[in-house]
Amino acid sequence: MRGMGADPKLSHTAAMILQAIHAGYKYGFSIMEMTGLPSGTVYPAMRRLERDGLIHSQWERQAIADAEQRPPRKYYRLTADGIAGLEASRKRYPLLERFIPSEEANAK
Amino acid sequence: MRSAACLPFHAVQLLTLRGASLLVPFDRRAEWYEEWTSELWHVRHGCSSASAFSWTTERELAAFCIGSFQDAACLLRQDWQSALRSAHVHGSAMQCVLYLSALLALFAMVAHLLPGIGSEQDATRNQLPSGVMVIQEDGYGGVPSIAFPDYRAWNAHRQRYFATLAFYRPETVSPSSAPSSRRITQIAFASENLFQLLKGDAVKGAPEALDSNIPQAVLSRAYWRRGFHSNPDVIGQILMAGDRPVRVAAIAPGAAQRLPGAPDLWVLDSDKQLARSSHAARGYVLGQLTAEGEDQVINGGSAITAYDRAGNEIELEGLTFGPQTNGIGAVYFFALFLAILALPAITTVFSTESDFASHPIRLAARVRRSAFLGSKVLLIAAIAYFAGLDIGYWGFPDYSPTAELLQFLATFCTGLFGLRWALKDQSRRCPVCLRRVTHPAQVGIASCNFLGWNGTEMVCMGGHALLHVPGLPTSWFSRERWLYLDTSWDFLFADTLGPD
Question: A40 vs B67: CB contact, 8 Å cut-off?
């Protein structure tokens, strides 16, 4: 695993995906829906973010999926490096938060 | 409930995902496929709440599935990058194999470009039929010695030891003004049956193209390759052999270039023409031995008794052709065999001992270590093959015994020192991760110690083991020794690649 820390040189796509995950869109299709990016962009970007240690994935428990009668989802969450990277990206892309409001912003 | 119209589309979508999954590295494939099929389900349900068939939905699903190829390619790229990174770790086994492979590719490429190697392979392939020999008068030592009238007289009578005889007379001609590669310096005037005797894989042209009053000629392989770049279209063309025009009828079999004189061009003349042109000159006679003749050669060596026109005995000696060249492969295997035999004389084959009793190395690591040594040995054997050819045939465009000797010596030396290096390198590699040990540290001084250990200590950068190399071999510490490092050493090593 390659830690990037708060490296500010994240692409706009990567920053959008981080912001979407931070905003509560935690699996691939929901991120696609939120960002409007195609699958061929979202999933490879998530692989790279995961490789760089900015996000972490985890499979949902089978029991939960069974209860909702659907296949289990693979959820993504930000790591500490991911949060730092997102903070740096927000300064670089100021409209990011307005485009995908985070949960805290929604709560306000 | 999914509409029946959706089912074929769904099958195609799953097939697309399955196809893309083939790009994903094997260890991640199952999970990748599971994630994408799960996402597909969510996409389908997100796109249309109703179960009815919709072209828009299917188009969106198809676009989603096509994106899976980009994701799979991304994972494949990551896998390659990771493999390359591990290969670039200083002293890693992969790096060593890559370097050896690059060296092998370089030598193989050079070997491909050297014309002498192709010529030697030709000569090996074109062995003459057994029992064909060059006949010369005893004591002439390789210079043309048979007068054409003698040959004619022998040919006119049934011979006891020879089934067929053929004659040729080499002649040096003054160089023409042609470019140096096409310049003919040596011509042989030969009887028309010479190449029937030699057989082999002569390249022949269409007979109708050769139907002409101009004398026919056969190009030597070496001249054909050198002057015409092996172009078969040269057959049928007219060349000047000295001041005579001749039509190229064929390309001589490779083995013909081993006949004494090694001419560039063979002019095939009738006996009548040869009698006119070669009356006073001497040449060589080729003979195909009968069974009785072969017995005579086996039992009595190569001396043959013949009779001249007056019925007097003349002593002849025969130079048997047989397989004069041993062939590239035979030279290589013999040199390599000698190198392996000589190896224990210059290095200790098993020079290390290990103290891994408390942490036995896993079977997989042991297999990997053996496979690595095997790969190195195979690569070095292959390098020795091509290096031997490159060095041997560097300055020889055709078959030459000197080239063969050089090939033998180069293969032997490369094989011997290459294998020695392989064993030495193996003894300097960590038994766990196969990386070379580094950071040599001198421990103790021989003159200051009494019954103490002194020598050099080296460490595996993966933090697996220490290698002790004794400075002065003693009865209690004579060989290099590995010492396993337990987990308490881990904090010293930031990079702990490889299994432990």
Answer: yes
